[in-house]
Amino acid sequence: MLSRRLIRIKVLQTLYAYSKKSYSTINQAEKELKTSLERTYQLFFMIILLIREILDYAAEKIELGREKKMPSWEDLHPNTRFIENRLIRDLSHHPAIERYVRNHSLSWKEPRVMVKNIYRKLVESDAYKKYMAAEDNNYKDDVRIIKYLLSEILPESEDLLSTLEEQSIYWNDELELVLSVLIRYFEQFPLKKGKAVPVPSLFKNEEDKQFAYQLLHKSILYRDDYKILIKDHTDNWDVERIAKMDILILIQAVTEIIHFPEIPVRVSINEYIELSRYYSTPKSSVFINGLLDKIVSDLRKDGKIHKEGKGLIGEI
After folding, report:
1. Domain span at 276
2. How much is the pTM?
């Protein structure tokens, strides 16, 4: 489930906390990284629960209409297509999802205002109106409207963003990734014809898991050495005056370049330039790009970069 980019972000967040003396040992930092990664995985299930809450709210509105003292024809003959959505039905009876939710006691606390506003935005959309008015309806149509909810409605919901921020300071940054994972996950359901689709694992493979913990471990272990290396390449810059996040990004980047022979240098540089655009100053990406180029050039001359494996054609 987790992309390498999100793993790098999680490691950087943990490295920052470690630098602020939040943890006194590498083991404590690794435990915090584990907790942080698991919280991202938890968000995957929380969004599924939110979709179910939205459907429940829609069903309640239909029932309230039927119970009016003087119900209209529309109240007595509602369009139930959305509340009969096959994807949500299968998600509500998915054994692995139900087990995870139960074991981790997941729920949304007092979500009614948020759910109401999200549902209203959905109902007002042309995509929803087209879905509800279509003459025919199949499983792919049911998936399509949920994909629309995930891609267009939820990312713009201020209620959702503020609620996520209250529950985890990092969830807002991770929402886009989790929504994209959910979209790919939901696309599998029509192909399985309603059978339970396996829930994606936290890590795509064992290599990604090892990458996460080794990157943090080695970034902390060699932090002082690589800080000196960075200082030696900053010319007249006082390293103590460089943005703290820039230093941490550079330390982590150098760690990856030196200690992960299967990852091309240019991939690592590009990833950390991208991270600097979101987590440091406006000018950081140019600074980090230039400095990493100089550091890598000297590391190559000193024979300290060794790359091997697939996808490394053109590496020196």
Report:
1. 222-301
2. 0.87
